[in-house]
Input
Amino acid sequence: MFINIFIKRFFQVIVVALLSSSIGFLMMHLLPGDIAMRIAAGRYGPDGLTAEIAQSVRMELQLNKPLYEQYLISIFNFLKLDLGYSLVSGNSVIQELKVQLGYSFVLALLAFIVSLIIAIPLGIFTSISKYKFVNNSVMLISIIIRAIPPFVLALILILIFSIWFNILPPAGFESWKNFVLPTLTLCLGLAAVSNRLITDSMNDVQTYSYFRYGRFKGLSQNITIKRHGIKNALIPLISFLALQSVYLIEGVVVVETIFAFPGIGHALVHAIVARDIPMIQGTVLIMGLIFVFINLIVDILALNLDPRLKEKKYNGK
Amino acid sequence: MNIKKLMKLCLIFSFLTLSANELKVIGPNEIKGLEPTKSGYIFSRLQIAENLVKVNDKGEILSNLAISWETSADELTWKFKIRPNVKFQDDTVLDAQTVVLNLTREEVKEKSILRYLPIEKIDSNNDELIIKLSSKVSILPAYLAHYTTLILSKNSFENGKVVKFIGTGPFKITNITEPLLIKADRFDSWWGKTNEVEKLTYNAVGSNETRALMIKSGDADIAFSILPISLKSLEKNPNLDIQTVKIFRTRKLKLNSEDEILKDKNIKHAISYAINRDAIAKGILKDESLAATQMFPPELVAWHNKNIEPLTFNIKKSEKLLKNSGWEKQDDGFLYKNGKKLELELITYPNWPELPIIATVVQNQLKQVGIDLKISVTNSSEVVRKHKDNSLQLALISKNFTLVPNPLGTIIEDYGENGGDWGAMNWKNGKMVSDLKSLYEKANLETQFEISKILNEELPSIPLTWSSITVVSNKKIKNLKIDPFEISYNLTDIKFDK
Output
């Protein structure tokens, strides 16, 4: 069963790797503007950029070779798992990604976990609450938080925690305190949607016969929710959370810029502006792999939570 | 070890930590690598590495790692005597051979400021650096103050590339997280006077709002390049000092002098008269004194010519010039000639956040006289590309005239015989060429003023505003001196208010 999932995802990894690398390469060459000049601008800034220095960059990076030749070299290196060197900083892409991915990964994981810590109890509480105003208030707050763009939410949090109460640093990445505000910015947006989904899912579960049977046979509400509610409510939530990782990656880009955080989103934005192709290919590859990995985890979790899948999906029935 | 002893040790440790004079500096510039050609300006400002020469506030060249210099009778050979007993941060000793190694690397030859010089050979003789030129360059020492010519230890290089940044400056790097963080400790064997800053942290913070919030919350001690928009809230804070210093950077309209429309000198002057520089300076930059009346600001005393007609705002003159050139206003409010609308395209870039805003103001001001200006905000490299393929009409750019501390270095690149990527385009002026050539060989104040006059009369580029830099610091920081040449943050002069 699990082997089938791994084989499926392994082929997906190869396709993602080749596609992301090729699309990254082609898009950077198809965009308007002179690639050597963009790279030179990224390296030396407007004050140091001249046509002559861009020409020197063109020769150094062999950008005067035919496009197909550059593409084949790029793919060949890629297949050798050689991600090359950043065209701007000159550092190896692996080395840069190690640092930047590390920070982003910790940030995204923290945001994800905290969002669940907020969303699951809140969602269940809202679902079982007898009072309508609880549901309405939670929904209103969730809509407001989700509607605020991450960069505005970030500035609001900085104002509250760094300026008014002065208890957290507004930017940086050196201490654990620096992780609090970026994590909050990301997780609040996530939790705002997740808690609503959990509420809906729990509401559905409570209408099913197995749940009502639990109540009829004399189980308390808490025990019925624990035994029959949460597991069933989690099935749609898990698939949704996998999709939400897209929001997380999108949020990371903005949050890293506001909080001066050296993450993979920050690296990608700068690489695109400077047409740093190896960095773009490396970053996109890593992001693609993260998505495949998340899907793999979702598959495994869903398989464990929903035994029907074992019979249907992977037995070809 | 009993608990009491442990607590005592903790107390002593925390006291020592607190008493260390730590300084946290934030600025917008990111670290793009270790090569001085890429990020030298950050390492130079943080005083991690040093140049052979330095400049004072007046732009005078002073000794630094070179203690003196002289030229041969034909002025083609320069000899720089290297300062003795200077140690790099890896304890190796500075000598003339190390300087030669630094200045003859491929990266430096091809991409540093030295590529503009007619250098035949760079060599050493005992404690002297010898530079042989093929033609005279009177301002050669000024080039050696440029950040691309920082001097590093021989242990910094591997295969001609910088792999460790080891300089001679008063601060020694302990940690770099590219592109955002540099941590450094005081280098106690520095050859200069001792200083109070013991530990230094530089954070690159791209967002102006975040920089303002960091200095406001006390999370940073000094914040460089705070934009006028954030100043109002910072001015009210009693814990902060704000300094604004003029720098030698001019925001100007680069224009194609052979463009079908702009080749008419009347149009250039009409555009200049139609621009209300005072309004731009007051409304956007919050400082009326930044409205440019000529290319160089008054602080650049040797180049600012007080006796020329200043660039002014005069709608009537603008309209008259346009009419003289045959452009007539029609019902839609725009000018037409032979059925063709007076349309121009201006490109600018967001590296300096005020440029796109100024572009929209210029668009509106030119509309008042009937010129339809289309704006495109793009990458800075497009200015160079469009200059090269001759497709540029107008570009709003920001140009620093003192990257080489003597402005002649930049002026000759921008307004010399063939113009420059960031200067004149398809513009030729014999007098300018001969003036620049003579200045390159020998300094002359009158000729410098003559150049300012030509630039105002001919308008190969249209100056809009001069620039300033605003630095906000915590009140505990004393004696912070802002360098108008942006070469150093002068961290060694800082005193802490105990």
User: Anything to note?
Assistant: Residues 3-19 of chain B form the longest helix (17 residues). Chain B touches chain A through 50 residues (CB under 8 Å). The first strand of chain B starts at residue 22 and ends at 27.
